[in-house]
Amino acid sequence: MDSISTLIIFGGFSILGVLGNCFLIFITKKDSIKLPAADIFVVHLASANLIYLFFRDLSLAVPLLTKNCLPFNIPCMCVDFVMHTALKLSSWCTLMLSVLRLCKLRKLYSPLWIAVKLENSSFFSLFVLFQWIFWAAAYVPFLILLPNNEIVNATICFCSITTVITTHKWSLETYRLFYLSFSEYLLLVLMAAANLHIIWVLLKRHRMLFAANQWTRAQNTNRELKAAKVILFLVVLYVTCWGIHALTQNIPETIALVVGHTASLLYSVFSPYIIGFGYQTFREKFKSMLTNPELNIKY
């Protein structure tokens, strides 16, 4: 598969992802004067997904336009910087959503109380802003450490530090191991652990509601349970693909590399649909918009 074919395929997925993420932002912010903590994370997650999808396509388009396959010419550096920052923030926001949901399910009110207190002050806005700054700053060492003459380990040209082989700069390789592998796997493992715990709690609740003949609540719980399972599947797929890629990174254009990039793309495309229709608050707003579009309903 060449770069143009890959760009067309990724572009098609991006259109689907842009529609889903824009819709998620619109419904979440609709008729809301002040967003709760979870909704703020949803908005930032969807915004990060939009940025990632746009710059993911640019990561394939820029080398085609510049006729330069080296990932660290200036245009590629800018694209890769924004793309990885957005992807990291999206993973972080998903983790925060999972933690908040788990606290609510387990009735662990202390973390939720802290979140509510923070969102009612300027500290919460600063906290969310700090996430963007932190993940952007975490990429800066690559701009300093990476030489211009590295070997590219891919037959498809795209702007990404994952395609670069470094053999003589241990500081760069160590930091890349931390940034690409350790931090990403840590976020994903925490996301998987939180979703496993959520699934376990929801299974118990669903059985209890079903036994008590509370059909509506059981149905809502079942939808949320399915959403948690799909998110867990995407996380496991993501971890597996990049784990295989880490073990086979010296083999040019491995299947794991292609599937790994595709997994991160699928997560950004489908996560807004999963998060949106998997949770009751979003469905209620969506249903309200369809049935009573003229009403100014506050949530």
Automatic annotation (TrEMBL):
Its membrane topology: Multi-pass membrane protein
Subcellular location: Membrane
GO-annotated molecular function: G protein-coupled receptor activity
Pfam families from the UniProt entry: 7tm_1
InterPro entries according to UniProt: GPCR_Rhodpsn (IPR000276), GPCR_Rhodpsn_7TM (IPR017452)
Residues covered by the G-protein coupled receptors family 1 profile domain: 20-242
GO CC list: membrane
Key words of the record: G-protein coupled receptor, Membrane, Receptor, Sensory transduction, Transducer, Transmembrane, Transmembrane helix
Membrane found in the keyword field: yes
Signal peptide span: none
Residues spanning the membrane: 6-28, 35-55, 81-102, 123-146, 185-203, 230-248, 254-279
UniProt-listed Gene3D superfamilies: Rhodopsin 7-helix transmembrane proteins
Regions annotated as coiled coil: none
Protein name (Swiss-Prot/TrEMBL): G-protein coupled receptors family 1 profile domain-containing protein
